[in-house]
Structures are given as structure tokens and as C-alpha cells.
Amino acid sequence: MGKIRHSTKEAKKQAQHTPKEKRAAKQLKKHAGDQPPLLPPH
Hints:
The protein is mainly α and 42 residues long. It has one helix and no strands. It is 29% helix and 0% strand. Residues 1-42 are annotated as: Disordered.
């Protein structure tokens, strides 16, 4: 008879974002301050 393995490890969760989506979000965050404000300071 063969040995039966009982894994205590949880099933791997699906990633929330694809690597491409992660890069896009990072770029947006990085360049968020590059745009001039819409209203001039008083």
C-alpha cells in the first residue's frame, strides 16, 4: 500500500491583479503628482 499525504497547506489563492495590471497601477501612482493642479493656489 502506498502512503497517503495529508496536506495542511491551504489552496493557493488567485492573484487579485495580473502583473500587467500591477505595473499599470504602479505607473499611475508614480506619476500622480506630475500633473499641475486644476485650480491655482490662492
